[in-house]
Amino acid sequence: MRSPTGEEIRTMAAAAWETIPEALRRHVRNVVIQVVDFPDDETLEEMGCESQFDLLGLYRGISLDRKSVFDSGAEPDLVFLYRRPLLDYWCETGEPLDAIVRHVLIHEIGHHFGLSDEDMEAIEARD
């Protein structure tokens, strides 16, 4: 059995994207989803991670609840999916990888909206 590639995880993220309600998707069309093997050292330190496997995904940007007209020239909002930690979690839990990718994607996009964990769980439940 081989590990899924970054491109395969990107494909899972694209499929998961289509399951997010349109009412939310239309507000996040400019969010860029990137799949990389691990978070960089600066991110690990910033997030207080003890291991490079501690973080499955990360939202980088200004959430809509904090964005203003003065932010129009800012860098694009990014969602990072960390391939190796995702695969490690997948092997440990036995959950379907596409379900894990969807969960992390929804959670990170939820940060774009400034949503609570409860709000994000409700979105996930609308499958």
Automatic annotation (TrEMBL):
Pfam families in the cross-refs: Zincin_1 (PF06262)
Name of protein: Possibl zinc metallo-peptidase
Organism of origin: Oceanibacterium hippocampi
Lineage: Bacteria, Pseudomonadati, Pseudomonadota, Alphaproteobacteria, Sneathiellales
Taxonomic superkingdom: Bacteria
CDD domains in UniProt: MMP_ACEL2062
